[in-house]
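ok, trying the design again with the full structure, not the truncated one.
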C-alpha cells in the first residue's frame, strides 16, 4: 500500500471540506425549522458534484504524471507529443483504463502498479468512477454513492494516483509533482 500525501487532490479535498461545512449549517438550520430534514437529498446532490470534481482532478493529475515522465526524455518535442496525446486520449479514469495506460510503458509496469494497490482501494475507487459516469451520462437518480463511500473513494483515488506516479517514476518521492495551477474551488 502506498503512503498517503496531503497534497494530492487538493481541489477535491477543498470541495469536500466546503460540502461538509455546508451540510453542517444546513442540518442545523433545517432541524430548527422542521422535524424531518431533507438532508439526504442535499447530500446526494453534493456527492454528485464531488464525484465530477474528483474524476476531473484525477484526469488532470494523470496527464501531469505522464508529462512528468516525458520530461525524462529531455526532448521538448517528445514532451509536447505526450502532453497533447494525454489531453486527447485520457477521457476516462477508470481503473482498467489506468491499467491500459500503464501497460503502454512496457513489461512489468502493470504488475508494479497493481502491487501498490489493495483490493479495497480498487473497489472504492471503482464505485466513485462508476458513480461519476452515472451522474454524467444517466439520470441523477442512477448515482447512489453515499458521502461515506465518496470519502473512502477519495482516499482510494489518492492511493491510486500515488501508485500510478511511483510506477511511472520509481525514483520520485510520494509528494505530488508541481502541476500547473488549476481553478481553485472555494465556498
Amino acid at each position: 500500500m502506498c503512503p498517503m500525501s496531503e497534497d494530492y487532490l487538493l481541489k477535491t479535498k477543498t470541495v469536500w471540506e466546503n460540502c461538509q461545512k455546508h451540510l453542517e449549517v444546513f442540518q442545523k438550520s433545517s432541524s430548527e425549522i422542521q422535524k424531518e430534514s431533507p438532508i439526504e437529498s442535499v447530500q446526494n446532490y453534493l456527492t454528485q458534484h464531488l464525484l465530477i470534481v474528483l474524476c476531473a482532478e484525477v484526469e488532470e493529475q494523470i496527464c501531469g504524471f505522464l508529462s512528468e515522465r516525458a520530461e525524462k526524455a529531455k526532448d521538448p518535442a517528445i514532451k509536447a507529443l505526450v502532453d497533447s496525446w494525454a489531453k486527447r486520449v485520457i477521457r476516462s479514469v477508470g481503473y482498467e483504463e489506468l491499467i491500459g495506460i500503464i501497460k503502454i510503458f512496457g513489461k512489468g509496469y502493470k504488475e508494479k502498479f497493481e502491487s501498490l494497490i489493495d483490493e479495497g482501494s480498487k473497489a472504492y475507487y471503482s464505485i466513485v468512477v462508476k458513480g461519476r459516469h452515472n451522474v454524467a451520462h444517466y439520470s441523477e437518480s442512477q448515482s447512489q454513492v453515499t458521502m461515506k463511500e465518496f470519502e473512502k473513494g477519495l482516499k482510494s483515488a489518492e492511493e491510486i494516483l500515488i501508485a500510478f506516479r511511483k510506477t511511472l517514476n520509481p525514483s520520485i518521492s510520494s509528494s505530488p509533482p508541481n502541476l500547473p495551477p488549476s481553478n481553485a474551488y472555494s465556498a
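Keeping the full-length input from now on. The longest helix spans residues 39-70.
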